[in-house]
Amino acid sequence: MATQHLLPYIAVAAVSSPLEIGANRAPQTANDLAQVLEMAGCEVLCLGSIGTPDQAIAAGRKAAEAHVDAVVFTPVSWFEDYLVLQFLEECAVSFLFWPLPGMETGALCGTQQITCYLKQLGHPYQAVFGDTQDVKCLQKSQHFLRAAVLKNRLRRARIGFAGHRVPGMTETAPNEFLLKKAIGPIIMPLDLPILLEKAQQKPDAEALQRWQEVVSKAGSCQVSKEDGVYAMKVYTALYDMIREYGLDAVTVGCYPHLMGKVCMSIALLADQGIPFACEGDVNGAVAQLILTLLTGTPTHNTDWLDPLEDDTVIFSHCGSGSFSLAEKQADIRLTPVRLMDQGVCAIFPARPGPVTLLNLMPAPDRYQLAVIEGEAVHAEMVFPGNPVRVRFSQPLSDVMNWVFDEGLGHHWMIGYSHVGEEIRRWADIVGKGVQLLTL
Hints:
- By secondary structure, this protein is an alpha/beta fold.
- It folds into two domains: 9-155, Rossmann fold (3-Layer(aba) Sandwich); 158-437, L-fucose Isomerase, Chain A, domain 3.
- The protein is built from 13 helices and 19 strands.
- It has helices at 26-39, 53-66, 81-90, 107-121, 135-155, 176-182, 192-201, 204-216, 225-245, 263-270, 282-295, 396-406, 420-430, and strands at 9-15, 43-50, 70-75, 94-97, 125-127, 158-162, 186-190, 220-221, 249-252, 276-277, 300-307, 312-316, 333-335, 345-347, 353-362, 367-377, 388-392, 411-416, 434-437.
- Strand 6 (158-162), helix 6 and strand 7 (186-190) form a beta-alpha-beta unit.
């Protein structure tokens, strides 16, 4: 099972027109920028310099054959726009332009010229301006390049869906055609009876050993050995299906009969980079996948609960969070699930830190993605689940009015760290199929 993380694979090329001042530094500049981006965490294919249509075509074919996520062009002088356009016909990925300063080179003019053209074509691009050591340029470039690889990862993603979405939660129903067209993932139906049958067939001894390992990592346990062993059997059966179908995320229609039966699977799979949404929410699973890819860490699947007097708000679900999301390991309690009083879930207050919250749902003609950043602060066990207490920079009344006015759904996926900028860049790249909603 592949680890979920974003490592942009990019091509770098310097563009110029031979007559122009600065054109002679094209090969060295391409190498220099390639090294900068490698040090910043990218895998780089250096294409050298492009100064003729034939060179543009050859470089485009090389980049396409390598299946790069994006191309970084560094203009070192003015250049003909058709160089990039010829490249585009061979390799139609996202483009980043990094023109170098130079009063007589015309590099900035050439960049404005091509971005003008690409804007009319509707082709995704980003531009920065500064030397190759400019920290702000590098940061902006990283946001765009991570967004580009996010787009490619989502277009290849498979979301496993077992059971059905919860009756009365219409917002969680996916539009499969629109999801594929706008964002990229396909849905792989999983036969729930077969999943449960496979779980029953798993060896007791293996499940017991895994359960004992889980108990050893918790602060306390108030569930029976039988319930714990069954939860581990379900986890193992799900893990087998994930490997069989090559799934990137999953969701199971757990409410109400499977409550407590799959919660530990959610926690354990999250630690392996496989997000798992509750209640058959395919849209939520996709949102969790976005956050997992961008943050590299497990995420919370939550409902928006009540505000507190200090203008913070509590988010939580029944208790399916990765143990790594707990503020203190000693606070992790293994208990039967609320409402149904069955199975096993892990309840604990969530750890503090910067967070990004997403709500993804289909509209009639597009997908809409609401994004807001905040700060998770210390939370008490005010709800038997994994309460996350969030403070927003905006007044909470404004945030709540925004939620109501935009008609946002009730499932909020939470990832640690602020990744709103990458998500905004990703929405720009994917285009009109996704409406980004921000406060």
